[in-house]
Queue: 2 jobs
Job 1
Amino acid sequence: MSQQDIQAPFPGVFYRRPSPDKPPFVEEGQQVEAGTIIGLIEVMKQFFELRADAAGIITAFQVEDETVVEAGQGITVLEVV
Amino acid sequence: MIRRLLIVNRGEIALRVVRAARELGMCSIVAHSEADADSLAVQRADETVCIGPPQATKSYLNIETILQAAKDVAADAVHPGYGFLSESAEFARAVKAAGMMFVGPEAAIIERMGDKAMARQTAIEAEVPVVPGSPRAVNDLDEALNVAESVGFPRLIKAAAGGGGRGIRVAENAAALCEQLPMAQTEARTAFGDDRVYLERFIEHARHIEVQILGDGERAIHLFERECSLQRRRQKVFEECPSPALDDTTRESLCRSAVALAEHVGYFGAGTLEYLYDDITGEFFFIEMNTRIQVEHPITEAVTGVDLVREMLRLARGERLRFAQQDIQRRGWAVEMRINAEDPERGFFPSPGQVQRLVWPSGPGIRIDSGLYEGYRMPPFYDSLVAKLIVWDECRESALIRAGRALDEFILDGFATTAALHRRLVDDAEVRRGVVDTGFLERWLEAKPTPTPSDKEVVS
């Protein structure tokens, strides 16, 4: 078991949901596969998907939904199984 | 009278309106988000007011906060710029209800011309040609085949509930229509929960040509056309005034049709009527109207000598239209290159960053509309347009050569922009000949991928 930080690759606004009326992509404690979408980052009116690099469990989000993030800022921690 | 003008926008257009307001002796007040507190528009404004957090929904789109700010600074008029709330009838109405002037048309006109179906109906009433199509949704194949001959082939089958290019199929002939129609209906039902489809003439080689107008509620004039066919993902990239496609007769009837439509609705302020121009048949068709100032307005200013933003403000403060149609003359040619903070070498990936070094082009015929300055850190929250390079010269050929010269002088270190793309475009043989349509740029990008120097690989 090892822990991986999933970071924002560029500055923008982080979203946990595909749209405001939809449930979050993943919940804390949820098991994910490599490639699972964790959230979206909006930069200059374009949206990019943030994905898990490996299979594991999302332990905790370090930022809230719809918050401003800097490049390299930790979004969530993935416990690789 | 307007004494205190609140400018509810950002970037180059906020600065553009500040300049016009100051020239007219109005106090310019820029409403800005927390992310734009250090913008050039804020620095140049007479006064400023913060309207909330960076996200546009919490600031530039937040009507309640904006109205409170307007009250706090005792504004008597509001200029919305382009984008954001510029075409919100609700905003226009709320500004008026709060006792201020809205620099733009009445809410009812915004509503009428902003709705595609209503705008089309209004155009038909004013005898302005629209893209031939079925007057309403077609129910079955018989009806689809019987739609007036005028629509012709190829036809587009469009889902009534579709939009932004989704839910569209092309039928080359009657046989293809028989095959495609049921599929289009099924698709529309599954995708949009609504199986109604319309038919429309498909124009294979269309140019995007638009007419600038000014109106005072009774009388309207045109300020000729702009051609904006060079687009990527339906976003304009490069515009020119006038259009190289039109002869004088077509230009005259196109521009007259725009005036007819503007006067038909009693249009007030600056507006633009967008048309598709069929390059094969030479026909033009009204598609929609933008009831605001547009990004590419400076090329019209360069060619006609009329300051459109200042005229908008004069009209809003109660002056009548100062020009008769014959006062508006064209002189020379102008092009606008949109410099976006996007990296053409990485699929136009957004590239926000800090301006390390900035050298603007200058000399004859050059105009820069931009909020950039050295040290400026571009926020990631808004669109990627960072500068507009507008180049005027006596004819099209020399304007393109001058544009190349201007781009050679331009230096921006700190982040990638689309300037290099424009440098290649202005030298392109087909662009030089003006043989372009709305699909040209995407085909060109596909066929002529940007040469990637090997040292760029480390970036990704």
Job 2
Amino acid sequence: MAEPAYTVASDSETTGEEKSSSAFPEIAIGIDIGTSQCSVAAWNGSQVEILKNTRNQKMMRSYVTFKDEVPSGGVSNQLSQMKKSKTLPSLCPMKKGKFGVRRGMNRVAQNLDPYCLCSPDATSEHRTLQFESYSLYPQERPSLFVASVSRMAEPAYTVASDSETTGEEKSSSAFPEIAIGIDIGTSQCSVAAWNGSQVEILKNTRNQKMMRSYVTFKDEVPSGGVSNQLSHESEMLSGAAIFNMKRLIGRVDTDPVVHSSKSLPFLVQTLDIGVRPFIAALVNNAWRSTTPEEVLAIYLVELRAMAELALKRPIRNVVLTIPVSFSRFQVTRIERACAMAGLHVLRLMPEPTAVALLYAQQQQQCVHENMGSGSEKIALIFNMGAGYSDVAVTATAGGVSQIKSLAGSAIGGEDILQNMIRHLLPDSDILFSNHGINEIKAMGLLRVATQDAIHKLSSQTSVQIDVDLGNGSKICKVVHQEEFQEVNGKVFEKCESLIIQCLRDAKVDPEDVADVITVGGCSNIPKVKNLVMSVCKRQELYKGMNPLEAAVIGAALEGAVASGINDPFGSLDLLTIQVTPLALGIQADGNSFVPVIPRNTTMPARKELVFTTVRDNQTEALIVVYEGEGKTVEDNHLLGYFKLTGIPPAPKGVPEINVCMDIDASNVLRVFAGVVLPGSKNPPIPFMEVRMPTVDDGHGWCAEALQRTYGSRLDLVTVQKKI
Amino acid sequence: MISTSSSLSSSVNFFGPKVVILNGRASSPRSLQFRSTPRISASCASTAERTASHISLISPSASLYEVLGIPMGATCQEIKSAYRRLAREVHPDVVANGQRSQTSAGEFIKVHEAYATLSDPDRRADYDRLLCGVRQTASYPMAASRHRATMASRFAGHSRRTWETDQCW
């Protein structure tokens, strides 16, 4: 990863919990990660000392064994016989990258700075496990090491917090850490936390609850909307600031959402081959590249620092809200950004389900005596922000919010804004696509003026737009409400269809809906309110919550509940029963997508389907896992693939290939596949357990590469649904 | 019907040996039972890992009504409120901080499947007919789900997000 995120991360660290230790310069330790053995040494004040593990060893075998539920490495684990390391299949040389050296880990491993890694490529996540074990050592200043390890993968978090309780943070360990709620909006962000009796929305130093979502690179150190104050809206549109990162994160350059971002003031370049888009900010007249994850991480670091300041405690656990339509791949990018910012994601909640939780709490407070009586209220929640629209139908009673169905799409205020800009200046896409200095300026002016006009149309029937683009062209136009609705007809149609689909999936008639809740920035648009009311056959909307704050409050509630906080007044007697927003399945019957876990399945879930071979004596089967709603695999997100080998030769259709998908309580997806021959009792080969997603950056590429390599032969190795 | 039976039998074969490891009980007789009576079987629920709660009091061959702790004639309202009450006992989010998070996912799946069947009038009628026919030894194919529940616990070591979190990077 590029430097700034880390710079910011370490900056905030010194201002935060670790201030006490900053009086001493931190002495970097040396690690030699060998293919066969590892060792660690540190300057002890007068000379270098090689550190020993608890078994008094200086040199430790380099391996990680997976034989127990929790993997353990050669630092903490003792082999009963040295020979075993050669014979046990679970042991393997890590440096050779049998499990793959992952670039992402490399980036996070840089967080180890200033610890020097003298290995040629200190990247494998398996090695980080060894670091983790080290953090248990009674070293001189373990907390230093722990703190940096804690920026790494999660077991590190587990271990780190274990050892932390023995260290400097003992005082706080008496209380369970309450996870805070963060609502990362496309346009605005907010943070809330349970303060012991209720949820409080945190404010930044400028007393703002809602902060613009952007990071500007104009200075040496990037700064985000949490700490930075815009002198004027157009400052965000100078090309130096990256915004709308939530629309870009985890998307490949063939995605229409990425393409629609090309007219933004910063640079979004696509090659249309299914790799990640090139994103850059204008810094000192040069385009400086970045990634949505990095931008989000920088922003989250600021949010974290702000929350730590407001709550006067270190923050590690967070509950984040995400759009319903996010794929599991996008979720991993969000988690990655959080890890870079030193945050541990306790839960990711689809935005409307966070609102549903707040609704459940409000209902419980209204009718406390009704608890457990079984009388439930159905609510429909429509959330439309700048980037995404989501719908949820929830059945609420006794503090339990049972999500019946979810629906979502990447349409939002940004689409409305771009439609209007195109309406006002038909060739704007071409004009702005070359990103000249003057064009960027003109685009910024037009964007601000259009945004302003849209806001005004929420309260008036027509608006006068008057903008001088500075390049000789002027736009003077009166836009009426009807015109605005016509220009955005498709957006509103999509909103309607989402609501209708969600009601149908929930098997709920509009008449059965007790409350209709609209939240999000676009819920102020009269047309949006009207369409929601008309689909739900309703005269008015639920009034009990602030449309801009509902999601973050719900996330903070979930944070308190998931942290195990009890409230004497029962305000946290809450539970959300979530469902899967998208179907999960595999490729079978040619290029069909066969769902194993359908959309709107209650989580945690475990489902299985039986498939079979398509050729006589087929010995291999490729299990390609997809997520989405499309009928063919091309319409869905590729999550990963693995090969089942060693299928005993048999006529086609005879072997039973059992594919089981499991979503556990933490929303982790695992795919199991095994073979059974009818009549035989024991499976001929061990079954496979694969955690998804496994595909890396260019996941669009993987699908194409599969097709290119196997082409028409692909059906040789795929399977069909067993009838 | 054929697909159901194959699914059940294979699921037992698929995961069977793992159950042995967990319970110390032989699984092969059970898988044979599945094979001969695919829709009706003694359950393979592992009683060993159950801890004190309503669920733990249910015998392995409990009907869906017993899973929810309601009489056979229960109204739709009663089914719903029983489901919610149990969800608040066994849902992983509720027990995540206790000791039982390892098994709660499986238990919740079981409770939810009982609810899903009984709250749907058609599926409930089918189930009632089946239940009347084979009251003695029987449970519904849900036995399979109970079996899966034990499997879920087999993997429960992963129920926390663990070291794999960053694997897709």
